[in-house]
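Data deposition worksheet. Section B asks for the primary sequence of the deposited chain exactly as it was used as input, without tags or linkers unless they were present during the calculation. Section C holds the resulting structure in token form. Section D is free text for depositor observations; keep each observation to a single sentence. Incomplete worksheets are returned to the depositor.
Section A, Depositor: J.P.
Section B:
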Amino acid sequence: MSDKYDDMIDLQRPVYDDLPPMPLSDRAAQFSPFAAVVGYGDAVEETARFTDSRIVLQEDKVYELNKSLEDIRNRLDEHPVVELTYFVPDKLKAGGKYNEYSGIIKKVDDHEGTIIFEDGVRVPIDDIVSITGDV
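Section C:
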């Protein structure tokens, strides 16, 4: 069987005086993989990232949290040390994560709806799911 390239198979590669040969490392780069769709890998990674769902508190738990907050308000001059578990919404997708933070409470700001710690950290009251410590 005759191959249609038989007449070229033994020819040397053309050499030009004004164009030096490309280094092998540059030639290899021509065949490296590329991202046909920019950002696709990041989008897939983001979709695969897990988030937690926000817990809907039962009435008795809400009552318990409100009682603890009232106790904290009444004892601010004692500099209560508490540990909070609270929900932080994800900025990119539905859900979020639960963080724990402990410290000395400086103020309960009902106007802003936050608890302010002595180190400046602010936690939204509506996102708190548990309070433990000096309560």
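Section D:
The two ends are 92 Å apart (CA to CA).
The mean pLDDT is 88.
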